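Quick one: structure tokens for this chain, please?
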Amino acid sequence: MGELKPINVVPHFMRLHEWVALEEGHFQAEGLEPRILDDVMHQVSSHGADQYFERPQDAPFVKAEEVANSACEWGSICNAGAGMGKFVPDLYGVARFAFFVRQGSRLTRLSDLRDVPVGVGLMAGSHFTALRTLEAVLPKEAIKVENVGGPGKRLQALLEGAVEVANLLDPEIAMADAKGLERIAQGEFRTLFWVSPTIGRDLLAAYFRALRRADEALRADPSRYLRLWERNIPPDLRDGYDYGRFGLGELLVFERYPEDVYAESVEFARRWGLDRHMRDAGYSTLAVPITV
């Protein structure tokens, strides 16, 4: 094997793939030496009500650093359209979200959330999925969201009573279950990889091949890897959890993200006025195709 090629990677708190790939040597087998930016991951989980372009996940792109990251499908598209990187159309993830309240809450179903602010992270998966879920049962004018920050911050806000309801992602979903909080709704959503346009496509292809091998390993033997969830929890929120109860988290689908789904995602963002930072909405200009 020749010299390993470096690549900067922000692991996503919703999945285990980067850690599995590290443990099993999948990155090295693909000729990569990843620099795992888990400090950025924890900042994304723990940050407060930062504004767009000032969120921790934005910083590498604003600073023109080469990095591979991921976000919800709407967020990755809007970020790319705003000049922060590109999205990769050759694969996508499937992740979970869930609306939680405290025990004994007056809020027991989605229709109870009329005019109730839902804790979300600005222009991130929790924000988009909250709007998409609530618009199915409530009129637009009755839907309220509050920018609380990352999922760790939202869990803390819910536990402290700063919000009545929050939309959480993995691993905070399992953490909320362990702490006795109650779900009133749940669902799944797609994610897309969001990358700096200057990263070599050969590096990205190798990175995704390593993640494919990690995905296969995780699906085949979950019990071998669930302990790795500890790495995705911000240090100040670690509390002796039973990681065997956390589930698989985000999983990857190695199929092309369809252009008609892309168009629906852009229209959804426009309908809610979340496209205001987008300077470009063209699939061909925002997507960076990779042969995985």
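Strands lie at 5-9, 32-36, 68-72, 86-87, 92-101, 117-120, 144-147, 165-169, 182-195, 251-253.
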